[in-house]
Amino acid sequence: MSPVFPMLTVLTMFYYMCLRRRARTATRGEIMNSHRTVESNSRTSPLNAEVVQYAKEVVDFSSHYGSENSMSYTMWNLAGVPNVFPSSGDFTQTAVFRTYGTWWDQCPSAPVPFKRTPANFQSQDYVELAFEQQVYPTAVHVLETYHPGAVIRILACSANPYSPGPPAEVRWETLWSEKPTKVNASQARQFKPCIKQINFPTNLIRLEINSSLLDYYTELDAVVLHGMKDKPMLSLKTSLIDMNDLDEDDYEEKDDCEIDNLNKKFSSTALREGPSNGYFDKLPYELIQLILNHLTLPDLCRLAQTCKLLNQHCCDPLQYIHLNLQPYWAKLNDTSLEFLQARCTLVQWLNLSWTGNRGFISVAGFSRFLKVCGSELVRLELSCSHFLNETCLEIISEMCPNLQDLNLSSCDKLPPQAFSHIAKLCGLKRLVLYRTKVEQTALLSILNFCSDLQHLSLGSCVMIEDYDVTASMIGAKCKKLRTLDLWRCKNITESGIAELASGCPLLEELDLGWCPTLQSSTGCFARLAHQLPNLQKLFLTANRSVCDTDIEELASNCTRLRQLDILGTRMDITLQIIHFPTHFLIEV
């Protein structure tokens, strides 16, 4: 045989090994370059022209800085052509999320994080955008006009939001993701990440946000979707690069597979007989349980397949006392909850935020799960869970007698009458109703029966008619209250503030941002400073009347104050004369 062929074989093997080594050790930037090669090598016929379109409408989001009855700083500004770009700066015509930085996680109202949250899941907010035409995406451009760098994940959905009937299957695919990174410049930019190709057309794009590294609110102006009407064909060279990139440890795809196959992963009948369980037979049961406490849910799924001993440990209800299912929102459905039921009989903390939308979880499936697993629940997170209806809240009130912590943030599709069932949860200590349609009658009933409340969020609750009456009831019934969010309450006056301050002396956090009816001339802010000495966080955002006297009173009386927001005041505040505590954050 000619020596040429062995030489070619050796060179081919060497080249293949180099490619695999590159795939394992490449930096994120190199991997992105390989995806760029994929994009540049896609072949389309001349008739398959690229479609470029702006978002037609905003279909869902987790939070925004603006009001529900306005367009300023709201997510709805992301629909249509740019309003501001390429200009830089703070503009009301842009989309702005509610938070930024890390100090939101350090204030008294911040909830304790869930254990076993995958390190790769760092999303804090999201917005979903619908486009006119379904295309195979080739690029997604985000026009950022102020403090860019918050977008960490872009996803596409197979469901068409404009389809008249329900889709046969709803599938989410990640187009691009990255860990939060610091962007030093605050100027406008057109963010153009290199996305991967998917095998279905889409007109529903989701941006996920992490603002923890930002120095100020990020502002987004528009999103542009580029794509082909027909599926692009990839060259052989492109396929080779994609195959090598599969060596990257993609947590999301693997974890999604695990959630899809919970039944198989946890089924003991799928285990093969083995001669022994290794050295695990020699370890105490409690020690193995302690070791497994450090695993995420998908890791437990994988480990359950190894042997019967570890399968027994992985299915032990003690492993599911704290269960965070939010990272798996894109795959979690009724079947997943059914397979988890037997293992969650002792669950105390349950996070179902962002889950169940577009038919993934039904009212019947949620009800069945709570009837089996709700008796020990202490904390239930349901932020942006749009499958919820009145029946669900009734089931929660009946099946969760020990519930102390309920988060319904941005559940804006819940009907007003549904909230009356919360009054049956007399042991509540934390209640989040941000951006919900709770009405005054139901809220007063809740305040009357839930007198142990320590944390209450009523931000952007536009259906409450009289905030003075609400504040008076809070002061009369909620003597243990430590934090209160009244962000953008439309009609509270100095009378309500007086009742609140006299009745809730333990308050450590008070958000009165964008409350236009409060006037410094009435002495309401000075009264707060005198009657609430434990204040650590106070928001008076956009109150045009705040003056030097108010700041001096706060500095003299509220010695524990760490966060003060007086952004938007029209007065010239002389901060130099004030002696604030160390580690103090002030926005002006």
From TrEMBL:
Cited SMART domains: FBOX (SM00256), LRR_CC (SM00367)
Residue ranges of every copy of the F-box domain listed in the record: 277-332
One term under GO cellular component: nucleus
Top-level taxon of origin: Eukaryota
Pfam family, one: F-box-like
BP-aspect Gene Ontology terms: autophagy of mitochondrion
InterPro entries in alphabetical order: F-box-like_dom_sf, F-box_dom, FBXL15_LRR, Leu-rich_rpt_Cys-con_subtyp, LRR_dom_sf
Main location: cytoplasm
Gene3D superfamilies in the cross-refs: Ribonuclease Inhibitor
Keyword Zinc applies: no
Entry keyword set: Cytoplasm, Leucine-rich repeat, Membrane, Methylation, Mitochondrion, Mitochondrion outer membrane, Nucleus, Repeat, Ubl conjugation pathway
Compartment(s): Cytoplasm; Mitochondrion outer membrane; Nucleus
Keyword set includes Nucleus: yes
Name of the protein in question: F-box/LRR-repeat protein 4
High-level lineage: Eukaryota, Metazoa, Chordata, Craniata, Vertebrata
Gene it is expressed from: FBXL4
